[in-house]
Specification:
By secondary structure, the protein is of the alpha+beta class. It contains 15 helices and eleven strands.
Length: 373
């Protein structure tokens, strides 16, 4: 192999070379190479005519250095029986995620104590008129919904039982399961809403969805027409939001995001945005393989095994970029590899979730967790 005869470089030379590449290159690769072509072609999966985007945030443990602490901030914690206080550097990842096409439309790594609603509003510049946004209970503020209405973006957001008066009544089982109401901002926020040029009244629809557990889930939405958007569809629609939860699972476990390859702020941002780009690239490359699996007549629907697909991309990365093979031949070879060991989707399963104590989770992260590459 010719590469064995080449002169090796030092670790310092590698580090110096990587800092010549800005992390913004990976942001542009994701936008120009994955997101924008998909939107331009209009060839993407939809639900009720919408591209379904979920927004959510997640804390990311960062290398604890003076530089990272100054940039991202720290979060205090206590550990052990003696409750000794400490602190560690964290960042807040916020992602606008296409749950049906498994594409991160936009992502940001913000300071630890950033307000998730502000981060979500910043994502809206990357949305289009036919998008529908799904959000969990961290987001149903008046300002969030006013921003969405102002931009004419459809949304479905889960409410807590104490967020709005209508939501409280629905949670108690009172009133109709679907109600269209007009809401106004809280007294202390009216001036801010007016200054931002947002509407001072908005009309929304509250929907009560009954889960299999008997629990009532309260959703607030801009989809006002009961005939076009029946209440019975909202359980399935909101369930799609789970896609962003599994996306964070892939980032942190399968791709070991928190096992950063450097300790500087630039290295952290490179790793974060490169990982986001890699997930989109995997979605695009496995699309043909997934279509083959969808055509199979099996007892349970099958999906591409992400352990296989990410490993293939990792080992074939240089071939993808520099191979002399034509694109069609290379894609055929990749698709053959992607089809190995597919996973079966057994819908309706509801295994009991075991909740570990914070101390047990900390011990796992520090002493038991193994990083696999």
């Amino acid at each position: 192999m010719l590469w064995l005869e080449r002169e090796t470089v030092t670790a310092s030379a590698f580090c110096q070379a990587r800092y010549k590449l800005k992390h913004t290159a990976f942001i542009e690769l994701n936008q120009k190479g994955i997101v924008e072509p998909m939107v331009a072609e209009g060839d993407y999966r939809q639900f009720l005519g919408f591209r379904v985007l979920a927004v959510d945030g997640s804390m990311v443990m960062l290398p604890h250095t003076e530089e990272t602490s100054k940039t991202f901030g720290t979060i205090a914690y206590t550990n052990g029986k003696d409750k000794q206080p400490g602190e560690h550097c964290y960042g807040t990842a916020s992602v606008l995620y296409d749950v049906l096409n498994r594409i991160a439309v936009d992502a940001t790594l913000a300071p630890a104590k950033a307000y998730e609603v502000d981060l979500a509003i910043a994502h809206l510049q990357h949305t289009i008129a036919t998008d529908l946004l799904l959000m969990d209970r961290n987001y149903p503020s008046y300002r969030m919904m006013a921003e969405l209405c102002h931009r004419q973006r459809a949304f479905v957001i889960r409410c807590t039982a104490h967020s709005f008066n209508t939501a409280r009544q629905l949670a108690k089982g009172k009133g109709l399961a679907s109600q269209v109401v007009t809401i106004i901002p809280p007294d202390g926020h009216k001036a801010d809403i007016r200054q931002r040029g947002l509407p001072e009244t908005i009309t929304v629809r509250f929907v009560r969805v009954m889960l299999k557990t008997g629990e009532a889930e309260i959703l607030v939405t801009s989809l006002l027409d009961e005939h076009t958007y029946p209440s019975a569809d909202f359980a399935e629609l909101y369930r799609l939001r789970w896609g962003i939860e599994t996306f964070y699972g892939i980032l942190k476990t399968r791709l070991a995001l928190e096992n950063f390859t450097g300790q500087s702020v630039e290295a952290i941002q490179q790793d974060f945005y490169a990982t986001i780009y890699l997930t989109g690239l995997e979605s695009i490359l496995t699309d043909t393989a997934q279509a083959h699996l969808d055509d199979r007549n099996t007892r349970h629907p099958q999906t591409v095994n992400r352990a296989v697909s990410f490993n293939v991309i990792k080992n074939q990365a240089f071939d993808l970029l520099f191979s002399q093979l034509d694109t069609e031949t290379l894609m055929q070879q990749l698709t053959t590899l992607f089809l190995k060991n597919p996973l079966s989707q057994r819908h309706g399963r509801n295994p009991t979730r075991r909740k570990s104590s914070p101390r047990a989770l900390l011990i796992f992260q520090k002493r038991k967790k193994k990083h696999c590459f």
